[in-house]
Amino acid sequence: MEQLKWKIAVVTGASSGIGAAVVKDLLKAQLIVIGLARRIERVEQLKQQLTGEQQQRLHAIRCDVTNANEVAEAFKEISLRHGRIYVLVNNAGCLRMGQLCQMPPEQIQEVLQTNIMGVVNCTRNAFASMQQGAAEENTDGKPRGHIILINSILGHNVPVIPGHVPSLNIYPATKYALTAINEIYRQEFRALATRIKVTSISPGLVDTELITEEQKKICHGIILKPEDVSRAVMFALSSPPHVNVYELIIKPAGDMI
């Protein structure tokens, strides 16, 4: 992580859960962190838990990742105030329980727009920032940026749980999309000779606000913590310049899926 000290990292969905855990770990690694969230007051509350020096390196911006204009404005502000972005952690996510065959279409759209278009909106702007000024840097072979996609085990497998009516609806489809998008970005970044890394991190069930108490009962409490996923993010970011951790799948020990 030495090469990333004092570099700019952007984390979406920074107000709680995995996003908040990633923010804390990036600050410990001495990066400057921009936390994007709709609930900006939660990021400010998180800030109060930090040391004074870390507080100075955490900046919160209110942003709805589904709104392309808001995202563009947020990234413009980041570039003007802080400079070029080196790390983007696409963490913001949405889950609405129900059956795809009968749930309200606006809920389906909310999940689609957050989980897919939110990633596309933020990555497009982060990519532009990562490329900005890259030509002036010396050609030392070091990566020019790193895009992290917080995916899910549901982006690789849709489980059947006997005795339970499926309720994940469109959510697994959005995560399957991220699995494909990860490869699309890899191919594009390579073809454009950008030296930007991309990593998909797919955890099993994580104890966050998205998960219901019923889901916790179904898995018998066998569940990951947000900090487990954050450690995976830090592992990917700390890889040597010639190594790209392309994909990580993380399951809690004894997972039933």
Description:
With 257 residues, the protein is an alpha/beta fold. 41% of the residues lie in helices and 16% in strands. It has 8 helices and 7 strands. It has helices spanning 17-28, 40-47, 52-56, 68-82, 105-131, 171-191, 213-218, 226-237, and strands spanning 8-12, 32-37, 58-62, 85-90, 145-150, 196-203, 247-250. The chain has a 7-stranded parallel sheet, sandwiched between helices. The chain is globular and about 55 Å long. 40% of the residues are buried. The mean pLDDT is 92.
Short description:
This protein has 257 residues and is of the alpha/beta class. It is 41% helix and 16% strand. It has a seven-stranded parallel β-sheet with strand order 3-2-1-4-5-6-7, with helices on both faces.
Strand order of the largest sheet: 3-2-1-4-5-6-7
Q: Could you say which overall geometry the principal axes of the C-alpha atoms support?
A: globular
Specify the helix fraction band.
Answer: 40-55%
Tell me the number of helical segments per DSSP (H or I, 4 or more residues long): 8
For the sheet with most strands, the description reads: 7 strands, parallel
What structural class should be given to the helix and strand makeup?
A: alpha/beta
Radius of gyration: 18 Å
Number of strands: 7
Could you give the order of the helices and strands? EHEHHEHEHEHEHHE
* Mean pLDDT rating: 92
Low-confidence stretches: none
Give the end-to-end Cα distance, rounded to a whole number of Å: 33 Å
Strand content: 15-25%
